[in-house]
Fold these 4 entries.
Entry 1:
Amino acid sequence: MKQIYIAGSFSTDEEKDLLNKMIEKVKIDYPDYNLYIPMDHFVPGGNDKDENGNYIMPNDVWAKKVFDMDVNAIDNSEMIIALYRGRYSGTGTAWEIGYGYANKIPITLYVPDNTDTTSLMIVNSATNVISDNKFEQK
């Protein structure tokens, strides 16, 4: 099945809400695609804790596993759809967009309302920009 990689920060409740709204739209627009949503994927054993409440897996090991899992998912995707909140987007989202661009993977940016500052590098790496705001679709 064809796959879309969903990029976007999900560190706060506001970010999760925006990302989930975008995901619902993507599911409607691309019903025949599998969506790879990083916030839904976990490293086996990555959340396990010892009797003192400390994580068993060292952070650097967990981080490398997450990185490898997400890079593999991007490599196996036909496109990236990113929630782009301008300069308030996470560095991980910017990296995913740049990696996709470097590997010639088409990128669509969903820009939420009230996004008033953007990066020319991110916007110009996109194949398509979708917004109700002042940005025009490319």
Entry 2:
Amino acid sequence: MLIAQITDLHIDNNVSELSHIDARANALAVLDQLQKQNVRQLALTGDIAETHEGAEWFLGQVEQRDFQYRVIMGNHDVVEPFLQRNLLKPKPYFVEEMEGFRMFFLDSANYWVDPAQLAWLEEQLARTKLEILVFIHHPVLDCGGTMMDTRYPLQNRSEVLRILSESQREINLFCGHYHLEAVIKHNRITQHVTPSTLYQLKKYSDHPETENETIGYRLISLANGKLETSVAYLE
């Protein structure tokens, strides 16, 4: 099973400094490349589109190409098109199993994993012996005091980390939000931060500042409880 994680597309954003970047063209370039790689499964991990029209357009492109996809929201997403497709019902977080893995898709759209979701996560982790994957928009582990760590972090990441750590399981966590590539380890947790398809940020700055406009996505290969992952970039 090969899954592509796509994150932080920011389709139809209204940031004037980014107006020269064609977010829709970037999204199409990634989707076309994934088709060439025979990838059929997508994990869309938030900040997908900032307008109703943009979300409808992107989901249409995904469905037109017959990708199977799972989606969680980011802090910049317009949610109505996803609700209309029943992608966030009955709750905006869920779990699936495949290839010997139990895959958790968590909701952090409000910079927060709410208490009900935390209780659900703890209970679900205790119910399985399968390998664990977690998909969430915001990083849970600090990436080294970066600008995004200090200004725009997941507000209750210590609580999420506590529950993941207390499970005593090997956990691979996939996230976005920071517009950069990073791998951070804490005990038995490995956090994979996936780059954006819009642009990448400088790690250390007083404000959000562009590092480069290369776009990226992540490939995750699952087979019989074994995982391999890598990041690919398009100029």
Entry 3:
Amino acid sequence: MKDLGELKKAMSFSFLKKEANPKSGSIAYSKNGNTYLGAKIESFNHILDITSEHVCLLIAVQNKDPEIEKVETIIEEGITIVDPLVLKVLCDHSARTGVNIEYSIFDINGNILFDTKNVKEVLQFYSQKVSLIQFGGQPQSNCVTLESKNIKKEMKKYVVAGTENYFPTSIPATKFGSAVLTKSNKIYYSGGYASYDHRLNIHAEMAAAISAIMADDKEITHLAVVSTKNTEDCCELCGCCRQ
């Protein structure tokens, strides 16, 4: 474990349905030497709950730095130690980037509960036919400061930029992008994070909102969404994003 303090910081950003629910936090370490924090995000209907591991991978992707070599997680009592769905998410991410992922879980005191040098060895029975995703260029923050009073113009600019952060399961694919504006005058722009079973998709709107949450900047005032499929009409929010 590199930094128990940073893991606890990540855990503190957990966005829960009930304050008493157990928290978790994760850190993703990229080949570029960068770190990305993730926290457990819950929904009121439970269907849209997102694990802290999934969140830290999402944040890495939105910063154009998807090649993750290691994920560390800290959990409170009451959380399943090794979640098979988390292993699946990690394996899918590893397959798309071509980078093996180490994965470790710690308790609140820093004691190791689980450790593997390669998540794909834990799920040897599971595999997907994948296309390697190449972002290219240098890592880049998906947060900017609003510089104009023309909110619609600025949101349009960055919602389109969000499509370039889309993490698909195949190439080519329809790209979705979103942007949120917060009370602090920050714009967070993101693409969706697709999954092979479609059940674990993180939609672009969710990704932009989660980016704000992980920056401890939760007061969202505006949201925009765009799709490369909708060239003649507006892209509507889907049912789960409306929730």
Entry 4:
Amino acid sequence: MKRPIWFVAVALLLLAWEAMGVFACIQQFRLGADAMGPASQYDRDLFARLPIWYNAIYAVAVGTGLLGGIALLFGTVLAIPLFAISLIAVVIQFGWLFATTDIIAAKGAWVTYFPLVIVAIGAFSLWLARFARARRWIV
């Protein structure tokens, strides 16, 4: 079944978003707390306290997201489980960060805004893949 042009455009945008996530992850691995610009002492201390699995779950989140974006663009149903894994990993990553650290108290509620956008885009990606499957745009 022919996919609408809007679907292909959105799939390309999601793929670009996921590629930016992979880039951000690589930057964090390379630069640590300074990945988002000059880090405060609080940022350095927080980064030093992150458990080893935190970076692994970050890599899983962005890696499966990127593969999900590729799968969606190429029309394969693998986009659904890949986006699901990515979303679960993102929720674990940010859920742990906000539940077990004092980052909100130290930096303010605004630090939750971008993670909420990331979760929303992850949920949208999964919804879109399922929507595309129902329309037989991905098989």
